[in-house]
Amino acid sequence: MAGSIDICEEQVAQYQRDGALLIKGVLVDEELELLERGLEEAHTAPGARYTKVQSPEGKGETLLEMFPSLHCPSLQNLLQIGVIPEIAGRLMSSSSAQLILDQTFYKERGYINPTPWHQDTPFLRVRGDDMVRVWLTCDVSPRDLTVQVVRGSHRWNVVYNTKTAQSTRVVTTGEGKEFTFEGIGDDASPVAPDVARYRDSFEILSWDVEPGDALVFNGNILHGADGRQSHPIKRRAFTSMWGGPELRYHLPKGNATPTLAEINGFSVPHGARIGDYPDAFPVGWRQGNDTLRKSA
Q1: Which residues lie below 8 Å from residue 201, measured CB to CB, with a gap of 6+?
Q2: Nearest Cα to 28, choosing from 72, 82, 96?
Q3: Computed from CA positions of residues 3, 275, 252, 159, in that sequence, does the dihedral angle turn out positive or negative?
Q4: How far apart are CA 13 and CA 9, in angstroms?
Q5: Please, which of 98, 110, 164, 244 could form a disulfide with 281 given CB 3.0 to 4.6 Å?
């Protein structure tokens, strides 16, 4: 099946203004099968860049992994179909979309730990406005357990601390040999607002997301998710982050999440345009190229 994803000017304007939007019915059945199969592949045999967390009381296990597509054929195939980076590129109004990062978030049924309100930017090795996450789930995800955002906060022109004011904490119960969250961020940066405590002071956007939908949000936006004492099903999500060619590589003072530059040993200068380094930041879509959907 060939064809370009249908994104209208109104959706582009909404994304640019709000920093996030939900696009319904993005994935076809074969792609949903790839998504669920890939999430289970990553959960059954996580790679070298995974982190497991629970509450301090030992409840609510979440498995997070960086670049699961490197060892999960189904997720790799899903990214190569092209509809995902095309969404990112069109919403950025960019000439191309290059891969910054992909991740899985696998939350077991039962107790769900909340995700503290935070910003992705201080965890990353890139800086700039043209940075889009495409969040996909193979499970029905109610709005309280799905990513919520502070509307317009992607335009606040601030990079926050990775530490948060929110009192909710999790403990790491396992991690792969090639990645740790220890030492990420700059302690001199301001702490993100305590959105959970002062929720009425912010305009928060939230969505009920169904399998096949794409929740898309800017990499600089403040976001989080609520928890639950009990949830009857798993909440499995695959997310990829894409940048436009003018996005800049950022060499942090300390630790940060890897890009394919670090993983594959490419040297990228601090402040360089990622558009000049397609080997380190692979191009998933270019303007003028229609999406080609391959049969799973």
Answers
A1: none
A2: 82
A3: negative
A4: 6
A5: 98
- Identify which of 106, 103, 104 has the alpha carbon closest to the alpha carbon of residue 61: 106
Residue 186 DSSP SS3: coil
Q: What is the pLDDT of residues 47-81, one digit of tens each?
A: 999 999 999 899 999 999 999 999 999 999 999 98
- Taking only the tens place, the pLDDT of each residue in 164-196 is 876 667 899 999 999 999 999 888 899 999 999
**pLDDT at residue number 5:** 76
CA angle in degrees (0–180, nearest 5) for 40-118-23: 55
Note the pLDDT tens digit of each residue in 129-145. 999 999 999 999 999 99
Question: How do beta strands 131-137 and 235-243 pair?
Answer: antiparallel
Alpha-carbon separation of residue 31 from 133, 135, 138, 180 (angstroms): 18, 14, 10, 31
Cβ atoms of 266 and 280 closer than 8 Å: yes
Structure tokens, 38: 């890939």
Q: Residue 227 corresponds to which tokens in the numbers above?
A: 């928890």
91 token code pair: 């919403």
- Residue 195: CB atoms within 10 Å: 23
